[in-house]
Amino acid sequence: xxQSFHPKILYTPGKSNVVADLLSRPVHDNKxxxxxxxxxxxxxxxxxxxxxxxxxxxxxxxxxxxxxFESGRKDEDFINWTSRGYxxxxxxxxRYSPDTExxxxxxxxxxxxxxxxxxxxxxxxxxxxxxxxxxxxxxxxRYYFPGMRKFIAEYVKNCAECNRYKPxxxxxxxxxxxxxxxxxxxxxxxxxxxxxxxxxxxxKWIFLIEDTSTKWVELFALEDATAQNCAKFLIEEVFLxxxxxxxxxxxxxxxxxxxxxQQTCNFLGIxxxxxxxxxxxxxxxxxxxxxxxPKLELF
Length: 299
What we know:
It is a single chain. The chain is an alpha/beta fold. It has two domains: 49-165, Endonuclease III, domain 1 (Orthogonal Bundle); 187-298, Ribonuclease H-like superfamily/Ribonuclease H (Nucleotidyltransferase, domain 5, 2-Layer Sandwich). The protein is built from twelve helices and nine strands. The strands form two sheets. The protein has a five-stranded mixed β-sheet with strand order 7-6-5-8-9, with helices on both faces. A four-stranded mixed β-sheet has the order 1-2-3-4. A hairpin with a 5-residue loop joins strand 6 and strand 7. The longest helix has 16 residues, at 227-242.
């Protein structure tokens, strides 16, 4: 039936076509809409410009920059600080960084005030103990101090509340690869065992040397566990018979980290490798010590 007519289609804006609103748009009864708004009241610390300047002048590094700006000299130091984004405003030192999203300059924080800023932007209830990156971007929009990213990362890493309540998302450490040795006596592992009951000849210590590739072990009795005795037995009893190794593995005992042992390894071209503290599993010779102890007790 509609096709029997010859209608002319005209465009009518939505504001003028109020008739169609009856079918296509929700009814608006002009009633007042009440919305519940929950707010949290916090007291933010307010500081006067004079107090901020006094705190900045307590920092020797910041004081040096302020004195350079206020001296009025356009020397090399002034050009250096301005090129790095530093500027003065009402006697307070700021720094503008194009790397941040903020278009305003950031307040330069003295060293003794940095932890207070971290407490405000990380530890406070409204901060929510954000991660290192989130905390950094919040602080970097308003403050600046040298090494800020590293300082914030270390602070967040050692935060007791974060370590207590946040889950650990780090992947577990993978398995270590088995070392492949090119030749015998390429890598030696050394360790001291004792003190033991003194023998008739005055020996109280056992100096253990193991070749990590062949598992060959040699034991030497020592009167005193000194760095000089260890270096002497290594040179006279091992190096002169088997040749010089490339690597020498030991724990962090005073005999092995001493200047005598370090100079001996440097002079002979041996790479000295110290295992991590409280991790004896990294030293292969420790396993031989465990086998040696019950044998000596039975003896």
